Amino acid sequence: MTATVVPTVLTARALLLDMDGTLVNSDVVVERCWRRWAERHGLDGDEVMKVVHGRQGYASMALLLPDRPMAHNHADNARMLAEETADMDGVVAIPGAEAFLASLAGLPHALVTSADVALSTARMAAAGLALPEVRITAESVGASKPDPEGFLKGAAELGVAPSECVVFEDSGAGIAAGRAAGMQVVGVGPRADFHEPDVVVRDLTQVRVAAGPGGEIRLYVG
Question: Which residues are part of the catalytic machinery?
């Protein structure tokens, strides 16, 4: 399915931004690491890749290996995070991400990612992108997307009501988390088109940000 967008204007008081697939294209690394993991566990790589986007690794493992103790998933996830953090080959910015982030200077926004501090810092740097001042990472939450905890914490950190936030996401888990938080969701890229966010864009070149009156943020999408 190809991502489609209907030109529209959204309003918000804060923006909450996923990283992988939204600001940073890390798909080649994710594929390498998770397909190796699938092979080690005798799982079909294609089926594994349908699950892992957007979630923390331990949550994906729990779905894929439902009989394995969660303690094993957390330990395995720590190894996976280290493996991914050491592999930046092919990590690039999503088109328009640098200009989009620059346009948010002085406006309330936060990164809300399933990556930990080390991985998010490394991937944003590899893509040549500046880290937002407010960051909700794996260490910040007790539950992985599609649980809304991360987005709710991002809104709280910014002092903005969830209903006044707009989420940018690419994955089914992330879009579900944004909806569960009571937020509007802009889907980024073709993966998002399968999960019916409020609007879908090909990439961030299709989004323009402007400050409105009284602290309002206007998003011109399309």
Answer: 18, 20
What's the one-letter identity of residue 209?
A: V
Residue 68 has pLDDT above 50, yes or no: yes
CA distance 206 to 75: 40
- Distance (Å, whole) CA 34 – CA 51: 10
Q: Over the stretch 183-195, which tens digit does the pLDDT of each residue have?
A: 999 999 999 989 9
Residue 1 is predicted with a pLDDT of 40
* Contact in structure between 201 and 221 (CB atoms under 8 Å): yes
User: Tens digit of pLDDT for each residue in 101-125?
Assistant: 999 999 999 999 999 999 999 999 9
- How far CA 16 is from CA of 86, 140, 176, 196, in Å, comes to 26, 15, 14, 18
User: What is the value of pTM for the model shown?
Assistant: 0.92
Strands (DSSP E) found in the chain = 8-12, 14-17, 24-25, 92-93, 109-112, 134-136, 165-169, 184-188, 199-201, 207-211, 217-221
Query: Cβ neighbours of residue 75 under 8 Å, at least 6 residues apart?
Result: none
